[in-house]
Amino acid sequence: MFDAFIEVFTTFGGIFSLFTLVVLEIVLGIDNIIFIAIICGYIPNKKDQQRARFFGLMLALAVRILLLSTINLITKMVDPFFFIGHIPITGRGIILFGGGAFLIVKTVTEIYHKFKIADKEETAKSRQLTWSQAILQITLIDIVFSFDSIITAVGVTADNPNAALALATMIMAVIVAMIAFVVFIA
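Structure (tokenized):
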């Protein structure tokens, strides 16, 4: 596997795939950064906010690498478990639907509380989170946001017959994008 990480930098195709994936990871990760900033804003202590952002991003990195390692399983979850009418229900569909539903609920809840604060029915301090609550929410949100970047990464590297090289390229792109995010939010 180590050879695959070296090979990414020794071929034009490897470098091009890595660059493309890094750009896509950054673009797809911006929404994740916005949610992390919102959640960390509920932590009263500035130092704890910075720690939560950093640890949240490091957990995000670990989750994405873990999900990338199980990419074969995720991409093969297309056989229907059951049907609702003529609509096949697959494992991948359940994961994407669940993630989308979670994001909708989280977004609506955040918007609702922003309006309550604006209407003075609630104060920003009433929505404070502990450090561990923020990390838990960041982790859950990152799991949801990871699927779009993983599916994109699979699409970009799908033509590569060397599975180890494709996985190495995807992992390196995630690491480079996370370094960019850490620098950006520091």
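The mean pLDDT is 77. Helices lie at 2-8, 12-40, 46-69, 71-75, 91-118, 131-157, 163-185.
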